[in-house]
């Protein structure tokens, strides 16, 4: 559930627009950043704040592939499956991801570490087939073998994080606000 401070923050953002509905995407991303995905409660809150129905918000979520209604792994790999990437073998990369993780696309691995999602154009046609990892890292010219390597690297990074003290509590409290505070303090969140 959104806190009073979070609702005030969202209302302040929405106030910049001539119509409340214009702030819907920002609010949806805010909820997703807080919970990892857009929960039913979060959707209801955004509906009240923006005066849009849940159905209208679901239409927005369905259109924007970076928004999600289901929980995902700690690492999210979005593999472009638009025409440029498809003609360069994205379907083979996605099949390799399914084989390696033993999960269907969009499902989280049993340990919660990875979710692989097909994605509409990432704007990386010159590097096709391409993927966006955790919304901040790009991999291009993917092959099934490069997908295996990428998944191995992510698993190794997970192992390293698990060795650090207080890893569990760091995950539990990591929010955009804590990342900002940590960067101001010169620390890693």
Short synopsis of the structure:
The protein has 189 residues and is an alpha+beta fold. The chain has 9 helices and 4 strands.
E-strand count: 4
Q: Order of strands in the sheet with the most strands?
A: 2-1-3-4
The succession of helices and strands, N to C, reads: HHHHEHHEEEHHH
Q: Indicate the low-confidence ranges by residue numbers.
A: 167-185
CATH class of the domain at 75-146: Alpha Beta
Which structural class matches the secondary elements?
alpha+beta
From the alpha carbons, calculate the radius of gyration and give it in angstroms. 18 Å
**Most strands sheet:** 4 strands, mixed
Helix coverage percent = 40-55%
**How is the CATH topology of the domain at 75-146 named?**
Glutaredoxin
Instruction: Kindly report the name of the CATH homologous superfamily of the domain at 75-146.
Output: Glutaredoxin
* Silhouette: globular
Counting DSSP H or I runs of 4 or more residues, the number of helices is 9
């Amino acid at each position: 559930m959104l806190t009073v401070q979070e609702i005030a923050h969202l209302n302040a953002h929405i106030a910049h627009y001539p119509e409340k509905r214009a702030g819907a995407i920002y609010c949806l991303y805010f909820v997703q950043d807080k919970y990892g995905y857009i929960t039913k409660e979060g959707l209801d809150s955004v509906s009240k704040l923006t005066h849009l129905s849940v159905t209208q918000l679901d239409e927005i979520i369905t259109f924007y592939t970076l928004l999600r209604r289901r929980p995902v792994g700690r690492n999210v790999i979005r593999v472009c499956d638009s025409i440029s990437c498809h003609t360069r073998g994205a379907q083979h990369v996605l099949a390799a991801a399914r084989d390696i993780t033993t999960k269907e696309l969009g499902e989280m691995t049993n340990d919660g570490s990875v979710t692989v999602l097909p994605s509409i154009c990432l704007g990386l046609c010159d590097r096709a087939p391409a993927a966006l990892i955790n919304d901040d890292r790009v991999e291009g010219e993917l092959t099934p073998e490069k997908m295996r390597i990428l998944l191995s690297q992510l698993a190794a990074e997970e192992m390293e994080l698990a060795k650090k003290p207080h890893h569990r509590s760091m995950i539990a409290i990591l929010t955009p606000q804590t990342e900002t505070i940590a960067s101001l303090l010169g620390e890693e969140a």
